[in-house]
Specification:
InterPro entries: Ricin_B-like_lectins, Ricin_B_lectin. The chain has two domains: 3-132, Trefoil (Trefoil (Acidic Fibroblast Growth Factor, subunit A)); 163-281, Trefoil (Acidic Fibroblast Growth Factor, subunit A) (Trefoil). A hairpin with a 5-residue loop joins strand 22 (229-231) and strand 23 (237-239). The protein has strands at residues 3-6, 13-16, 29-32, 41-42, 46-48, 51-52, 57-60, 69-70, 72-75, 85-87, 93-95, 100-105, 108-113, 123-126, 131-132, 163-164, 170-174, 185-189, 201-204, 213-214, 216-219, 229-231, 237-239, 244-248, 264-270, 280-281. Helix content is 0%, strand content 34%.
């Protein structure tokens, strides 16, 4: 149970506004400078709900989330897209399945397109003694369970960001900021990059790596050919024992994504000398 603190002008705390005797469907969400009238929310990192503590009401983006839509609460319904949010490691609350973030607008909290460097979209948790980057209770969300015939392994390594051809504004990340077996890997703005270090997901080239195969992640398995890569001295990521490299798809367009839109797609392609689409820097 925590309150949410806006980075725009602390101490603005997300609350029901105006404060009623009890919450109800469609009730707007606003901000207040008073700790006593601030609402508490159940929220956790990653994909899940933003639930008004002690109730069945959740933050709801509406059936057609777009710029400048005022935020509200609504009764929780399992699997409802507009109630699924992703609380990122850089403290943004983004709609899972869309490209909108919770934004402190001129008239109060609203949805607005997720934008790098926009401090209106940064939200800290608040326990009453100061902002914190952790939460004390979990929101309910959906998850996928991996299945395989052998035991998965969790890599133990310190994570680094990987940038295409030295462009430090772009990062290799999992699509939709949602990790599960078979999820695509693409290029997105680094503020939106979803960390995978320390998880049990690995970059996977598929059972038959060849030109044009979209890159994805899969549960890590020790010794699996398609998950064993070699980071070369000339900054290429090549399949060990194969002839395919991780490659930015030439001419790929920025599709919409969740919670952020991607910029370019990633694939495997024959390792080619001097091909800058295959250069990856830390």
């Amino acid at each position: 149970m925590i309150a949410l603190l806006s980075a725009l002008a602390p101490p603005l705390i997300v609350s029901e506004w105006p404060v009623p005797p009890s919450p109800g469907d469609g009730m707007p969400v606003g901000t207040t400078t008073s700790d006593s009238s601030a609402s508490l929310w159940d929220i956790s990192r990653g994909d899940g709900l933003v639930r008004l503590t002690g109730t069945t009401y959740c933050l709801d983006a509406g059936v057609d989330p777009h710029n400048n839509v005022p935020s509200k609460i609504w009764t929780y319904y399992p699997g409802l897209t507009q109630q699924q949010w992703y609380y990122t490691d850089d403290n943004r609350i983004a709609i899972t399945g869309g490209n909108q973030c919770l934004d402190e607008g001129p008239t109060g909290p609203q949805t607005y397109q997720c934008t790098g460097g926009n401090t209106n979209q940064i939200w800290y948790t608040w326990t009453g003694s100061g902002p914190t980057s952790t939460t004390s209770s979990s929101a309910t969300g959906t998850s996928s369970s991996p299945s395989a015939s052998s035991s998965p392994t969790t890599p133990v390594t310190q994570g680094v960001q990987l940038h295409p051809n030295g462009d430090n504004t772009k990062c290799l990340t999992v699509a939709y900021a949602s990790a599960y077996d078979g999820q695509a890997v693409n290029i997105a703005s680094c503020f939106a990059a979803d960390p995978l270090a320390g998880t049990n997901y690995c970059l996977d080239a598929g059972v038959n790596p060849h030109d044009g195969v979209p890159a994805k992640i899969w549960t890590c398995y020790t010794g699996l050919f398609q998950q064993t890569w070699y980071y070369t001295d000339d900054n290429r990521i090549a399949i060990t024992g194969g002839d395919s490299c991780l490659d930015v798809t030439l001419g790929s367009q920025p599709p919409s994504g969740s919670p952020y839109g991607s910029l370019e797609n990633v694939q495997t392609w024959a390792c080619t000398a001097y091909d800058t689409q295959q250069v990856w820097t830390e």
